[in-house]
Design brief:
single chain; alpha+beta; Nuclear Transport Factor 2, Chain: A; 10 helices
């Protein structure tokens, strides 16, 4: 399912930003945004067990793998405080399906919880691996509008000096804190990519099928059957 591959793009996009230098960053809002992102980066770098290590452990000792995954979960809440999963969920789900299936806050929270858990379980460990492979520079794109701002970054791969990519970021300010809510990697905003995929599954199958797919993927990841 392409959605789960795009989760990796989320990790790349979000975690690339936290590795960037402060060159060309101006203004209190941008400085505050970078501070929040660096806090997230620090939490991941110092506390999260990497995807590569988890894969190695899962292949050798299931009990140890489960313990390491539980160690990671102790830091999920602190890291996720620097992301706006609610806005991501709203942008990723077509309005017509929100109106039909999110008839209560409980239903919305269920979908949001699945999406957030998938990012936490899959992306954060992969982000730990990613930190070591890139260097990034960035600059602001425009100013602040409706408590939102955009950033353009250039990513250089340490082992491939001639290879670079541009990534665009959108951040929003919630209760005085800047949070990442959207990333454009190689031309695709991940919220739009998710929306297309979610719409296809709901249209051709059902909303319950989408939730079921997410739950199955999450269960497999937690058990080390799929990383």
């Amino acid at each position: 399912m392409k959605f789960f591959h795009d989760l990796i793009a989320i990790g790349v996009g979000i975690l690339v930003l936290v590795a960037m230098s402060l060159e060309a960053m101006t203004g209190t809002d941008f400085e505050s945004a970078v501070y929040s992102i660096e806090q997230m980066k620090t939490l991941i770098s110092k506390n999260i067990i990497s995807d590569a290590k988890l894969r190695d452990i899962a292949a050798k000792d299931k009990e140890s793998f489960l313990k390491e995954k539980e160690t990671n979960r102790k830091f999920h809440a602190a890291i996720s405080a620097y992301m706006d999963f609610e806005l991501l969920a709203e942008l990723s789900m077509p309005k017509k399906w929100q109106e039909k299936y999110w008839t209560s806050s409980r239903e919305k929270k269920k979908f949001l919880g699945h999406l957030q858990s998938l990012v936490e379980e899959i992306v954060y460990p992969r982000g730990k691996d990613f930190f070591e492979s890139v260097t990034v520079s960035y600059k602001p794109e425009g100013g602040v509008s409706n408590q939102k701002l955009s950033v353009l970054s250039k990513v250089l791969f340490k082992d491939k000096k001639d290879k670079s990519v541009e990534i665009h970021y959108r951040l929003t300010k919630r209760n005085g804190r800047w949070k990442v809510f959207d990333v454009n990697l190689e031309g695709d905003w991940w919220s739009e990519s998710f929306k297309s995929q979610f719409n296809h599954i709901i249209t051709t199958e059902s909303y319950e099928s989408l939730l079921g797919r997410m739950e199955k993927k999450l269960s497999n990841v937690k058990q080390g059957l799929s990383l």
